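Predict the holo structure. Ligand: molybdenum atom.
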Amino acid sequence: MPPRRKRQQARTLPGMTRDVLLTCPLDCPDACRLKVTLGPDEQGHEKMLKVTGDPHHPVTRGFACVKTVHYPARANHPDRPLYPLRRVGAKTDAKAQFERVSWDEALNDIAARLKTLLDTRGPQSILRYHYAGTMGLREGSHVHALFRALGTPELDETICAAAGTAAWTLGYGARYAVLPHDVQHARLIVLWGINSLSTNSHLTPHLTAARKNGAKIVCVDPYRNRTAAFADEHLKIRPGTDAALALGIMHELFAHGWTDEQYIAQATLGVDELRVEAQEWNPERTAEVTGLSAGQVREFARSVGTARPTYFRVGYGMTRHESGGTNLRAVTLLPALTGDWRYQGGGCTMSTSGVFDLNRTQLGGAHLIQPGTPHINMNQLASALEPAKGLGALIVYNTNPAVVAPDSGRVRAGMQRPDLLMVVLEQAMTETAQLADYVLPATTFAEHADVYTSYGHHYLGYNPAVLEAPGECRPNSWVMMELARRLGVTEPGVYWSMDELLEHLLDTGSPHLRGITPERLKAEGSVPLNLPEVFLPYADGAPTPSGKVQLTPAPRYAPARAELNAQYPVRLLTPPAHHFLNSTYGMLEQLTRPEGQEPQLLVHPDDARRYRLSEGAYAHIESEVGRATRQVRVTEAAQPGAAVVEGTWWGLNAPDGSSINVLTAETLTDLGGGSTFHNTRVRLTPAL
Ligand SMILES: Nc1nc2c(c(=O)[nH]1)N[C@H]1C(S)=C(S)[C@@H](COP(=O)(O)OP(=O)(O)OC[C@H]3O[C@@H](n4cnc5c(=O)[nH]c(N)nc54)[C@H](O)[C@@H]3O)O[C@H]1N2
Ligand SMILES: Nc1nc2c(c(=O)[nH]1)N[C@H]1C(S)=C(S)[C@@H](COP(=O)(O)OP(=O)(O)OC[C@H]3O[C@@H](n4cnc5c(=O)[nH]c(N)nc54)[C@H](O)[C@@H]3O)O[C@H]1N2
Ligand code: SF4
Ligand SMILES: [Mo]
């Protein structure tokens, strides 16, 4: 057994503060460079005091979002777990009780129980479950290596971007994009299925700059969110009908000769098939399906057809439907018909992830995955936890599935199984941690070193550990190595230091990474990848098997399952809240207050009349899998037949104590096995 490091808390002189620059670790495209002020508490221990943005960073531009300025309150929260905790009493106890144990006690017992499972029931009885609570490649990705060395099931990380990634890859190969600083050159900007003012707030200055240059901004979204209010025009589309609208625009592009025939001939494959598919989508039919007027469809198509360059910023919102992959794919093919990819500021952004072509061959032990290893789709955790499936242990890190995963009522019931060993590595006493057998206290981004990519820009980030971990908090990577030693794992990659991982990641012949050495990255902290001054990634084609943008198979509009219509006539959308970052800030009063103190159900006045709901009263919401109760807001922001609850709130703020995901089903998308959070079919009744 390795000797346990005795940690000395750093002491600083009273009144002394210092500023450090760190990349924000959260699951957000902006990956901001933050200016973090550190200083002493009453006992002289150094802690995080204040967070703002690095004024010198070209993307961050001196501002952090309304959420992350409150990160210090989260890091210093009185309920933050600081020592390993072991459950006392049953998992079904209304109030979870824990006792403090030593790291050795916790790790020895967990390792022994995992060993028994491995010996008696095999690696398939242990599931790792994680997502992007930290985007760090070490604490978020490389830590999977332990499980791959043990041969446990693969977790398919499908909860967020899977449908979008599959759709983009079909058409364009690698995920390249228009970079934020080029957006100012666009003449028409379409924000489609993205609430960018809330979820990609560092794009806003570029939108404003484009508008000053004369650009028009159109938002395509089923409800009037902040971005719709900011846009010059809001097209309030019926949920799940984006493929129909995209095909309707294509119809007009072909009919009026607004296509770029030269680009289509040179850089695309399959236009004839697409032309045939678009033929039947005249403005009248498009209007009927999408809920827009034929005039709106014509006018929008004319703008897209005649404004060069046109820039589309698509979000994952439109993918969270049964046909979500196809819907996004249809939209993202528009700039290939207009040839916008040839112009600076023209084209589309879904994600910039593809420009970070690091060496990932051994990241997270990817090379250890054996053929035939079973896969579990993370959206189907509720089913995976059914007793008959035989899971004996669940190890959770960087995610809060009791709140964020589909069918969360059934997820919680599975977690409460007395025979399941559940270990949760956490920075907060989340509702998932409350159900654990062991809670292992985790460090925050200021307390561990890590390396960060981004999905909204092209800066690679590195953070050193700048704060001593409080109490006995430890990085995920430390915990995994300690378990690996106890389980006799000999695979060297599992024990890589930060420096060894960094060497591996940067050991690539990619021109994007030329000149970026570990030393330089560590010295500069945030380094732009080597991309051409004007980045036009699809100007001549795409890195697909054909070398062209693939328009084939032509996307087809498919309505959502009709058999649910009669019983569940309303669609429920549950998009991100402005003051939240998924459930990461759900315990902070400072951020739940501006969201209205408790989650609200936005319903259109027509629906309020139809279902006898009134402002401020409560409604029961029932779906095919569960039931929740929420306070009603009657508002024209919603549309008839589509209600909205913003934010994945912790159950503790809801009148019924439940997460909104008690309503969402495990239904997967057509491409990529993604989640369908904005396609929950519900009926509404007054709670009397
Ligand atoms: N403030 C804040 N920022 C965040 C997050 C957060 O929770 N809060 N979460 C982060 C994460 S993990 C992610 S993945 C991103 C997500 O950020 P977004 O991509 O902006 O969020 P989505 O859930 O994808 O929803 C975006 C919009 O899509 C709309 N939408 C739903 N269905 C449809 C449809 O069928 N068609 C169209 N056109 N629109 C539709 C919703 O109404 C919503 O306004 O944001 C990140 N940033
Ligand atoms: N209804 C509905 N549900 C949704 C969505 C929706 O729009 N509607 N959005 C979905 C989407 S897009 C996403 S991405 C998921 C996000 O869901 P999650 O991936 O669960 O993200 P968070 O809720 O932010 O929780 C992340 C957790 O990781 C922990 N964490 C952060 N850093 C570390 C670390 O270094 N170590 C350890 N051990 N823990 C850490 C945080 O304390 C936090 O509790 O939710 C999905 N769920
Ligand atoms: S959550 Fe997003 S916008 Fe906010 S500081 Fe982090 S990266 Fe920036
Ligand atoms: Mo996400």
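The first strand starts at residue 18 and ends at 23. The chain has four domains: 18-75, 85-159+375-528, 163-350, 570-686.
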